[in-house]
Design goal:
By secondary structure, the protein is an alpha+beta fold. The protein is built from 29 helices and 33 strands. The strands form seven sheets. The protein has a six-stranded antiparallel beta sheet with strand order 23-22-21-26-25-24, sandwiched between helices. A five-stranded antiparallel beta sheet has the order 2-1-5-4-3, with helices on both faces. It is flat.
Length: about 900
């Protein structure tokens, strides 16, 4: 392309690039051109949208002005270098802009190339632009999340549900557990951290995975191997369920914060609280508190009173008036400066001349003026502490440390602390913990206690505080019960209280330091434990059990009174050997062995035995049943074994009597079984007679009737009808005898059980029923059926009768439709009223469903009885024995059968057989 072809961007038709614009616009790219001669930038619609310009031809400076100040120099420098390069050069920059129309901050990427004429002069700069805000923000977010995870001062790990395997862990988690992340990731919890075995963390993790309930706990004690040493640390621990993309819990997010230093610090502070309090009151170095601009002395310990040298009555006096000799020594100015600015002052070693008895006595002090702030952060006074450098330099350092610890303890420690001043118990100071216990806010400061916390009226605390003022004695109250209104709700709380009187220089109590520890949860647990112990004791007494405990170290056995009475002993504490001597000599060795096995390290620690004793008082033999559980220390060494004992002598005698009774009943049953066998033999004999002796005359009647009908029908006249009725009656009699014989056989005989595929059974039955199927035009749908254990012949007769009935009792003009289905049913899901002959966990339910005439549901039980018919013989043939045979077959196979129907709506016969 030559110079003439390129021309000026301002003069060239912009439409010649529409095809390219369309393709680039589809990719979210805008096209721009810069004409250096006209100093104009030409935009397409996409660029206008990206930069928010209304004009298609802004100047270069207008474009530069929209770039973020932090990016403009870089972008301008690159563009200038590109435009002034002696050869054609490309550039690519990503930067921030402020849209010209809305001022909105966006990230854009522009890239392009310069075009020069043959003389090396810039003709135009052409390029594309793209809004990349979302990509940049996404990359920044990912980088921030990754940096947060890697640099977090909190231990974070993800543990997979499969064998509690570490999926990931950040460096701080590795630091907490004394391993690098590479030593953790991919390993199960107890393989990576074997010292955690037995500490319960694996059970907690599995509980979170199983229930989806997070586990959060503070100051959890953990024993870990760090730097090859077993250390105890404390962590604030959170286990959160970790869900995959489908929402299923696939692991646990573990977040652990190291609070070891805080816990150890609090423990040390707790131990030193009393020591610090006493130290402040009786400190040998001066302490004074001055309030207001006039520096009124509100507190002065004996040491500072001695330094003043003006007598003990200094409280309430103004500091400058009490010590006028300090004028000119800059102390008053230092005090006022501290009071005015709130900035503490420390003198270092300073000489102070004080008038004692008309003489200026030089002292050398390291003194401090510390501002005292009220609840609103305003200075209300100055605390003056000092130390005689000459004699008390060591004490001064201890004072500074103690004073810092004391101040930190009051302001930050979790121990609730407050100061009551005067007999009206005005609240001088209270930390946030104490105010939180009261359920109030900082407005209580300066109010009498009964006004600030009115619900304490009628409770013993006001009286106890007054008693401390009166007697000057410290009162400690363990688990004191208090009714407090917290969050608008009056509740019951328990605290350990300490009321410590504070005395002025005259020895009079002027204030009380109140410290309280919330023990509500511990007290409620103690009460619940006491209730449980009472309930357990009542249960033991009700069951007439004796209790015992054997201390392994001392060999001493402690018995309950009932246990001692049971053994005929007059004492409840005795050596183990004495208790063992009461055991019957023949049982003593194995009882001793059972004890020793229960005490073996690594055993379950369970002990149980049933043995004889010789009562120490009555000398009678008794039978004793005992159970116990051993307790071991962390090294597996047995500490004690405790348990219960029951006298089962009478129970055993009753058992023997019952066994004799059972033996007698067994003999009676054997005799009854013999009679039943004889009865079955008779029934078999009856079946034989019915099969042969009764059927034979009927066959002859039918045969002779056929001869008469064939050879003499013409001469019989009206007798032919009688002959026809005789043959029909004999035929029904024959069928009845056959059905009775079948019922008898099913009742008295069953082949050995074997696996029976029911689909094969039904297939054989359908072959036998081909004629009735053809005559009725029946449609039978047989679904997949199970294989059951039973008698194939009887099961065939069951389906033969049910399918034949389903086709026989069809509606006139409607071909029968029969469905046979199967499903598995749990025992607990059986319908009400279904009581199988044998109880198992699951049953096969087999349904035979027809579209026949149906019946009234009130006859559902009657139809299974022998000779019970719901329809006349002329309407439907039959003997009324078929369904009775079906029920007998089902019962023989341990199952149950039921029928449901409505007239004209068909019937369903449901068979339940053990699976």
């Amino acid at each position: 392309m030559n110079d003439a072809q390129l021309g000026s961007a301002a003069n060239r038709p912009f439409t010649q690039r529409h095809t390219i614009d369309f393709a680039l616009g589809a990719a979210g790219l805008g096209i721009w051109e810069y004409d250096p001669l006209a100093d104009q930038v030409q935009w397409d619609d996409r660029c206008l949208e990206i930069f928010g310009f209304l004009s298609r031809n802004p100047s270069y400076q207008e474009v530069i002005d929209r770039i973020h100040p932090d990016d403009v120099a870089r972008v301008d420098q690159v563009l200038q270098r590109t435009m002034h390069s002696p050869q054609e050069e490309a550039y690519d920059q990503t930067y921030r802009i402020f849209r010209a129309d809305t001022g909105q901050l966006r990230w854009v990427r522009t890239w392009g190339k310069s075009h020069l004429n043959s003389e090396g002069t810039l003709l135009q700069l052409i390029g594309v632009a793209q809004d990349v805000t979302e990509q940049v923000l996404s990359e920044q977010s990912q980088k921030q999340v990754l940096a947060l995870f890697e640099q977090s001062p909190v231990g974070i790990a993800i543990i997979d549900e499969a064998e509690l395997t570490f999926q990931t862990a950040n460096p701080f988690y590795g630091y907490l557990v004394g391993r690098s992340p590479q030593q953790l990731v991919g390993k199960p919890l107890l393989e990576a951290l074997p010292e955690l075995a037995g500490q319960g963390f694996d059970q907690l993790l599995r509980g979170v995975i199983a229930t989806g309930t997070p586990f959060i706990a503070s100051e959890v004690k953990v024993d870990l191997v760090r730097n090859k040493l077993l250390e105890t640390i404390y962590v604030d621990l959170a286990y959160q369920p970790w869900r995959n993309a489908t929402g299923r819990i696939s692991g646990v997010l573990v977040v652990a914060t190291d609070v070891t230093q805080q816990v150890q610090t609090r423990q040390r502070l707790q131990e030193s609280t009393d020591q610090i309090r006493v130290m402040v009151e009786s400190a040998p170095f001066p302490i004074g508190v001055y309030t207001g601009p006039e520096m009124n002395i509100r507190f002065a310990n004996q040491a500072i009173i001695d330094v003043y040298g003006k007598g003990p009555d200094v409280i309430g006096k103004n500091y400058p008036e009490l010590l006028p000799e300090l004028a000119g020594q800059r102390i008053f100015e230092q005090l006022q400066q501290v009071y005015t600015t709130g900035v503490p002052f420390a003198s270092g070693t300073q000489r102070v001349d004080i008038d004692h008895g008309g003489n200026l006595v030089p002292y050398y002090f390291n003194y401090n003026f510390t501002p005292l702030f009220d609840a609103n952060g305003q200075v209300y006074g100055v605390m003056n502490t000092g130390a005689d450098v000459t004699e008390l330099e060591t004490a001064r350092r201890q004072l500074a440390e103690s004073e810092a610890r004391f101040r930190s303890l009051i302001e930050e420690a979790p121990v609730a602390t407050c100061l009551f001043v005067g007999r009206d118990l005005r609240i001088e100071v209270a930390n946030d913990t104490m105010i939180g216990y009261w359920g109030k806010d900082q407005t209580v400061i300066g109010k009498p206690l009964i006004e600030a916390v009115p619900e304490l009226a009628g409770q013993p605390f006001i009286q106890l505080l007054d008693e401390v003022f009166t007697t000057g004695k410290t009162i400690e109250l363990k688990a004191g019960r208090a009714q407090l209104e917290v969050g608008g709700t009056l509740g019951t709380y328990y605290f350990d209280f300490t009321y410590k009187p504070l005395r002025n220089a005259a020895g009079d109590v002027y204030a009380i330091m109140d410290m309280a520890v919330d023990v509500t949860q511990q007290e409620l647990a103690r009460q619940a434990l006491a209730e449980n112990e009472v309930a357990l004791s009542n249960a033991v007494e009700l069951a007439e059990l004796g209790t015992w405990t054997l201390d392994i170290a001392t060999g001493t056995t402690k018995l309950s009174q009932r246990h001692a009475d049971m053994f005929g002993l007059g004492m409840t504490h005795l050596p183990y050997e004495t208790a063992l001597a009461i055991v019957h000599p023949d049982d003593r060795d194995w009882v001793q062995t059972a004890f020793e096995q229960a005490l073996q390290p690594g055993s379950s620690g369970q002990y149980q035995a049933e043995y004889r004793i010789i009562n120490a008082h009555t000398k009678q033999q008794q039978l004793i049943r005992a159970r116990g559980q051993a307790t071991f220390d962390i090294h597996g060494k047995p500490l004690r074994i405790a348990g219960i004992t029951q006298d089962v002598t009478l129970d055993r005698q009753l058992q023997l009597a019952l066994e004799n009774e059972v033996q007698n009943r067994t003999q009676e049953l054997a005799e009854a079984n013999t009679l039943l066998t004889h009865s079955n033999d008779n029934l078999q004999q009856f079946a034989y007679v019915a099969s042969h002796d009764l059927q034979e005359p009927l066959r002859k009647i039918q045969a002779f009737g056929d001869i008469l009908k064939t050879q003499y029908a013409a001469g019989l006249g009206e007798g032919a009808d009688l002959l026809e009725r005789m043959q029909a009656a004999s035929s029904r009699m024959s069928i009845l005898i056959r059905d009775l014989l079948n019922y008898s056989r099913i009742t008295t005989r069953r082949e050995a059980d074997a696996p029976v595929p029911l689909n094969q059974v039904v297939s054989a039955v359908l072959t036998d029923l081909e004629l009735i199927i053809s005559e009725t035009g029946a449609q039978l749908h047989i679904g997949p059926l199970p294989t059951v254990t039973g008698d194939q012949g009887q099961l065939g007769q069951l389906f033969q009768n049910l399918l034949a009935n389903a086709m026989k009792f069809h509606r006139s003009g409607t071909p029968p439709i029969v469905d046979v289905r199967s499903q598995l049913v749990a025992a607990e899901a059986l319908p009400t009223g279904v009581r199988p002959a044998r109880l198992v966990s699951t049953y096969y339910r087999l349904d035979v469903i027809d579209n026949g005439i149906g019946f009234d549901q009130k006859y559902a039980d009657r139809i299974f009885q022998v000779f019970q018919r719901l329809h006349g013989k002329q309407q439907f043939a039959g003997t009324g024995i078929g369904l009775a045979i079906c029920e007998k077959v089902v019962v023989n196979h341990g199952g149950a059968i039921m029928a449901t129907s409505q007239p004209g709506q068909g019937a369903t016969f449901s068979i339940y057989l053990p699976a």
